[in-house]
Amino acid sequence: QVQLVESGGGLVQAGGSLRLSCAASGRTFDSYAMGWFRQAPGKEREFVAAISWRAGNTHYTDSVKGRFTISRDFAKNTVFLQMNSLKPEDTAVYYCASARSPILLLWSRAITYNYWGQGTQVTVSS
Question: Cα separation of 21 and 37, whole Å?
Answer without folding.
Answer: 13
